Amino acid sequence: MHLHGEPPPPEWRQALRGLPLPAWRYVSRVTSTQDAAQAWAEAGAGEGCLVVAREQTRGRGRGGRPWLARPGASLTFTLVMRPLPQEGPWLSRASGWAALAICRVLEEAWGLHPHIKWPNDVLLQGRKVAGILIEAPWKGAKVPRYMLVGIGINVKVEAIPPEGRVDFPATALEAHTPAPVSLPRLLRQLWKTLYRWRYRLSHPDLLKAWEARLAYKGEEVWISPDETHTFSARLMGLTETGALRVRLSSGEERVLPSVHRLRPKREALP
To answer: In the beta sheet, which residues pair with residue 27?
Structure first.
């Protein structure tokens, strides 16, 4: 079912036909799909509803970083989640769930070998091809009323931003595929894969699959917990909740629920 928004182009309507989507909206131009989805969620959008855009004028990533992409060159959408009460302890795995879904589509459709740069980026050959932004109105609640899962995937090579405008090397899906990629069909594959795992956030298999694709596991990395501090550590893996486990040069192990920036130590410090 398609509700509100603009009449979607035929290829979008055809690609999403038959999915058990409660509702979806297509917009040709929007500040951010997160903004549009938030307004819709506040108005009552249910679990699984999504907003997809051809162009974002102020697309953003984690930490408020801009998401740069030319119109029609990236797949940009936001999915509305309505968490169940029992999912509260596992909602910190949401970025891993979304990243894992992207990885599975890239593996199953094109035989690629993506990795997840903790906590919310997907890499191809060491370069960022996709990013995830999770936002929710927690306000002290154990389970928020809704969560917004924003996903951006560089698809066309025109989506690759100039090196000087990003803080991590980027790539695009079509730089790794033998033929052009249909954005509507990619969204169909991704929605189906997301909902294959949607209610398995607490399942050990999700954590195992996430950790198996973890970029830099066992390697030395640079970690910036904030904008002013950086230290090196060996990336060991994930905790049960999806936090990062690292080992300092002293041998001390530390658990990091979040970081400002993470990059391999084989690269020079920025």
So the answer is: 53
> pTM surpassing 0.85?
yes
**How many Cα neighbours within 13 Å face the side chain of 258?**
8
| Closest to 94 in 3D by CA, of 133, 131, 62, 66 | 133
Separation in Å, CA 249 to CA 180, 184, 216, 231, 253: 46, 47, 16, 10, 9
78-84-88-94 Cα dihedral, nearest 10 degrees? -30
Nearest-angstrom CA–CA distance, 97 and 147:
13
Spatial distance between the Cα atoms of 126 and 158, rounded to a whole number of angstroms: 19
Q: Cβ distance 190 to 102 under 8 Å?
A: yes
- How far is 166 from 94, CA to CA, in rounded Å? 24
Within 13 Å, how many C-alpha atoms sit on residue 75's CB side? 25
Q: Is the pLDDT of residue 223 over 90?
A: yes
pLDDT of residue 195: 94
Q: Which domains occur in the chain, in start order?
A: 10-212 (3.30.930.10), 220-264 (2.30.30.100)
Which of 25-34, 53-62, 120-129, 189-198 shows the lowest per-residue confidence on average (mean pLDDT)? 53-62
Other CB atoms within 10 A of residue 92 CB: 18
The pLDDT value recorded for residue 82 is: 97
Cβ contact 81:54 at 8 Å = no
Residue 230 CB burial class (10 angstroms; 0-12, 13-18, ≥19) = middle
